[in-house]
What does this fold into?
Amino acid sequence: MSAHRPRRRLAGRIARHVLLVASAAFALLPFVWMVSLSLKPPDEIFQPDFHLWPQSFHGVENYRVALTAAPMLRFLLNGAFVCAVIFALQLVICVPCAYALAKLRFRGRDTLFSAVLVGLLVPPQALAIPHFVLLYVFGLLDTYAALILPWIISAFGIFLLRQFFRSIPDEIIHAARLDGLGEFEIIWRIMMPMSAPALAAFGIFSVVAHWNDLFWPLIAVRSEEISTPALGILLFRDDEAGQFLGALMAGATIIVAPLLLAFLFAQRRFIDGLATTAMK
Amino acid sequence: MAEIELRGIEKRYGEVPVLKGVSLKIQDGEFLTLVGPSGCGKSTLLRIIAGLEDQDAGEVSVGGRTVDGARPKDRDVAMVFQSYALYPHLTVFDNIALPLRTRRLSFAQRLPLIGGLLPGRTGIEKTIRVEVEQAAAMLDVAHLLHRKPGQLSGGQRQRVALGRAMVRHPTVFLMDEPLSNLDAKLRVQMRAEITALHRRLGVTFVYVTHDQSEAMTMADRVAVVIGGELLQVGPPDELYRDPRDLKVAEMIGSPKINVVARGHWADDRPILSAALAPQTKHLAFRPEAAVLTTPTAGLPGGTVTDLENLGSDIFVHVALRDGSETVVIRTAPDEPRLSLGRAVGLKVDAARLLQFDEAGRRCGDIEQVAA
It folds into this structure.
């Protein structure tokens, strides 16, 4: 009996890890493949036998094409600019809304919050046509504003932050009011620093969604100068796809890399933030 | 000067009335305790004084000035909360300095980065630093100024919360159960420190608690709030000796006052009948207002069911004859030891017997208790 136990436990542990490794591999495989393809010469890509590491290394050429054939740096900067402005404006709007919905008492608050929940259910694609028409009317199509404006009110952000703000005790806000802080100062000096983990989580969702978004930029933007990375990468496809598949994959790798790096960096801060938030 | 006057304060949450017309005058420099069971409205009353909630009817004035509608920061009151409500992301220094900074620095000077470059800020920061350090030294937290609240013990957080309240020299201190998160020993110590602070600052303290012993030991006057009504206000010993309402009598004093339905004493008429008022329904007496005797015909009596020995006193629980009610009698430890199950007689000091009518109001006193 006693000899069986550790072995059973070990077997269970191995089974668990096999399962985890299998699912992780499943999720990672496309990325591995992408990186692998980005290092191969065109003729090797379509060979029937598969090698993870290329037989003839073509990485330098692929990445050179990816970086020079299209203004890749420009796309990356566009992406960073658009994502940063979207997130900043989302905060400007979501944080006060979430504070009001979580902590202020006023008539119609619950109705408003229900409206936010309904907003969560509407898929963004459903609004693409009205947004397009609006931007056309205001003459903003094919500008940075067209990429940014439709996203600055995030029902998800309001919902997420409102839930987090509710967990902050009212007494802290009462104390702040007695200490002479106005409502906006309470938001800025008390609520935002105390909600750092929730803001970070929302930031990750927001930036990832808009960095990777292809659907909306495809509709709103034509000019190369303001293309975001996901849109820019299509330039490779527009040419003869087969010829440039390696470069296309290199471009995709370049686009994914900043997010991965940012996430690895943020993950640490994220956990730190969660660990040091003590309410009292 | 900061006397506080409440006139007919009413408050309801939806359909539920929380305060039903509370009027109270608190003298300048007084230590007044609001005591009552949880949910009686005492904290709501405190928040109304602070301006954190609006009353539905009635007026609040602080220092002779009606403050209804004035924002909390314009009322010159400070408050200490049950959870301390320190800002977790700021150091102890910044926590204490915040009320001074919001009052003395202009909006522009408070801005991050730019604020520090504006003229005048350095000088103001310097005086703030001095005052924060003074307050911290007074409360014995000067060595903790660089820490965050999360790294402090409960007692230290309590002191920091006091520091944040007193640093700007308010004329009124409001405290909402500030000691209830501390352990018993620390609580007794902090009681003494808060009363000492009150003597030193000489400003008005309004202190909310559900713990009658805190109310009795700390306050100049105690106001008993039960069910949204102010039942009685007076010095602690007056509430103890001369409660005007049965609920007040039961709230104040530990162990609780003994209350016996009048029917129980019907067969014991000889000692009491002469003095009872016709409307009297309940008889009450403190544990020290009766002595145990040998069972005597004509005297109330019962059997001993429990003994609580506190060293200085022994509280004897006596089940009355028909067993439906138990009274607690205080005896001195040097009296002959009783054993459980023993039959005893009970002799109540008629002068200290309190009578209450059906609604719980005091009635038909045998004689007014001597002061």
Remarks:
- The longest strand of chain B covers residues 16-26.
- The interface with chain A takes residues 47, 50, 52, 71-73, 77-79, 81-89, 98-99, 102-103, 110, 148-150, 157, 164 of chain B (CB under 8 Å).
